[in-house]
Write a structure and sequence with these properties.
Four copies of one chain form a homotetramer.
Chain A (H helix, E strand, L loop, with lengths): L2 H32 L2 H8 L3 H4 L6 H22 L9 H18 L1 H13 L7 H24 L4 H23 L2 H4 L4 H17 L4
Helix pairs in contact in A: 1-2, 1-6, 4-5, 4-6, 4-7, 5-6, 5-7, 5-8, 5-10, 7-8, 8-10
Chain A binds a DNA duplex through helix 1 and helix 3.
DNA sequence: CATGAATGAGAGTTCATTCAT
DNA sequence: GATGAATGAACTCTCATTCAT
């Protein structure tokens, strides 16, 4: 590609990213209901029609937002390093599990994107291709936990089962936290999550799984 | 209140209940997106305007629906009886926990109402009064579990903590199930929930909590 | 139906008719391109949304307009009486053919509705049901001509063929007139149409058909 | 004009022709509704803005398309040769009339351009200059028919009148064919057109005109 | 000459809500 | 209490056109 085309492509990419940023901002402050094309355009300093130069539909924006969020999730999980001088699989499990839990704990709306959206747009939105991409990246983010569980001696099926349970536990806590329900129990979501991981390790040590 | 007013009030209550029934029916079949005032009115045999005689806004309907759903949840939990000739607290925990889990597993849309809605609604949608009512009734539905945990020897704080965790675990599994994410892990939500309860009982028996 | 319902139905019908009138007015002055819901609503003194109380879509309006136009066409044809003391089939042919030709000559946009629309909306508009209705009513308007031709001694197939040709001739002349092309030939559409009918009668008299 | 300017003019003409080709292609496959500037530009390998270097508006493109179509019509008519060893005016009439009828029968969209468009376009779309050009070229295409009619003995006025009627007849048949209306009569447009020409010749032979 | 970005107007349609009756 | 009419604001999306580069 000639330099000029490269430059223009870069500019387009930047503008597209700016639209996406605007969309994320709107989404974060107004939620899915308020994230209309008009609102996104306003936040991006565009007229509504201009948005369609960068995304072919509103749902394509959501899809891009979700894909991008999952990339950041994976990056956060990858970057998480277990503590200690000689970290073993137990430490790895703790580190990787905390990584994804904290990611969503810090960015609660992105959990919405992942789940809330999925069910809200079933008919038209979320093409099966995008759905698979979502699954893949989600799996990828949980893979380190599953690997650590296997390294701790769990059979593959057991590792998968416990990963699922771990994920569900975290998601449940995040949801309670996000909706304010956790406050009513006077609990702290992160503490509970950590306790779950510790309990899981204990059960494995005791060969209870 | 004079007899006439009482009679009128009774009539109003009945009609309000009919509207609410219609709303639940619509909500169950069309979900939150399709549950428009028009649709609810049609299902109730009313015109849209009439709905406003009973509810001041669309979101008030949702709120009432939620309150009513929580009543049914509590009824389901109350009705659940532990199995065996001489059921102890462990059996009680299993029975009561399964009761609320199955309630939402069987009526997934009602979980939407409880959580999904809470965050999507406008400030006026979920008044703090309604919010407290929600909390109370939710607490009430979980109280039998908490009691059983205490009967099993847990300190009050520990019992509350474990109830919270139990609830979160169930909610997480239900969410994964409802959004179809559980399929991708090849797991069954109910089995995982039962396993969690068994694991919890085991930890208590071992004095690990 | 009770009196009240009847009265209200009547009111609704009147309002619907007013919307349809507005639509026809807009259609006549702005053509098919300019006949938007917004414009129709404005002409009817409504907001756009109100139109949907009377018609479920823009194309339903066109359909109703067309149906109504065809009714008026048929009424015009029915009302046309042959001249002379003892009018025979020849006079009947002249009268009935002139009736439909003049109808469209006087209301050129309605020919648009009948043809122009048909091809413009093929994909979505014009349900096959409406299409059949159109065909039926069009046939009905031409039936008197066909009957007269048979009464003049033509075999059924010949009568149908000549009716088709007669219709095509008229339509062609109307189109030339409507688009201003006829002026360039310095001719008058009605004279040419009458001449065609006379020629047709002459051919029949000579057994040339 | 200096050589350089000439060369540039030639280049411009070529590119303009390419755009026009693209427009025709799009128009043929997508019809008037789908023939957007975007689509034409895409087909021509240009961006939308570039089109405006060659045509000042979308309707100018249609105008040019129409002009070009009329050139091809005239070419088709010119190329048509009467059959037989010693073809007379009757054969010439048949050949020339069939030529233009078949041209539009084979390219029905171009009839749209000629008529359909004329009435739909904004005032500025069809400038009076273009309108005259249209008339001239249309006249030219029909001139051979008119000449043949005169050669058959018709007075000039009669020849013009019959040419007009012939044209109207053909146009009517083409419209019925194009909109699918002819099917409902179970007739074939070309057969009917040929019959009309034969009938016309017969009338002339009988001095009925 | 051509691009690519952007505009602005407008399309059809939906819906919660209001209000006179 | 209930109706039915209507509003008004919102929705997603399309398109001809302009203009700096």
């Amino acid at each position: 590609m000639p330099a000029k085309a490269l430059r223009q492509q870069a500019m387009t990419d930047v503008r597209r990213a700016l639209v996406l940023d605007a969309a994320r901002t709107v989404f974060e402050s107004l939620g899915i209901e308020g994230a209309s094309i008009r609102e996104i355009a306003r936040a991006a300093g565009y007229t509504p029609g201009a948005i369609y130069s960068y995304f072919e539909s509103k749902e394509a924006i959501y899809g891009a937002l979700l894909a991008e969020s999952l990339e950041r999730l994976n990056a956060a999980v990858s970057a998480a390093e277990p503590l200690g001088d000689a970290p073993g699989p137990a430490e790895r499990l703790e580190a990787k599990a905390s990584a994804w839990f904290n990611f969503y704990s810090d960015n609660p709306r992105e959990l919405d994107l992942g789940f809330y959206l999925v069910q809200g747009m079933q008919p038209r939105g979320l093409t099966s291709q995008l759905n698979e991409q979502l699954n893949d990246r989600l799996h990828a983010a949980l893979q380190p936990c599953e690997d650590a569980l296997q390294a701790l001696g769990l059979a593959p099926e057991a590792a998968l089962r416990e990963t699922t349970a771990l994920f569900a536990h975290g998601v449940g806590l995040l949801l309670l936290k996000h909706t304010g329900r956790i406050r009513m129990f006077g609990q702290d979501a992160t503490l509970l999550f950590d306790a779950y991981v510790i309990g899981l390790l204990e059960r494995i040590r005791q060969d209870l799984i």
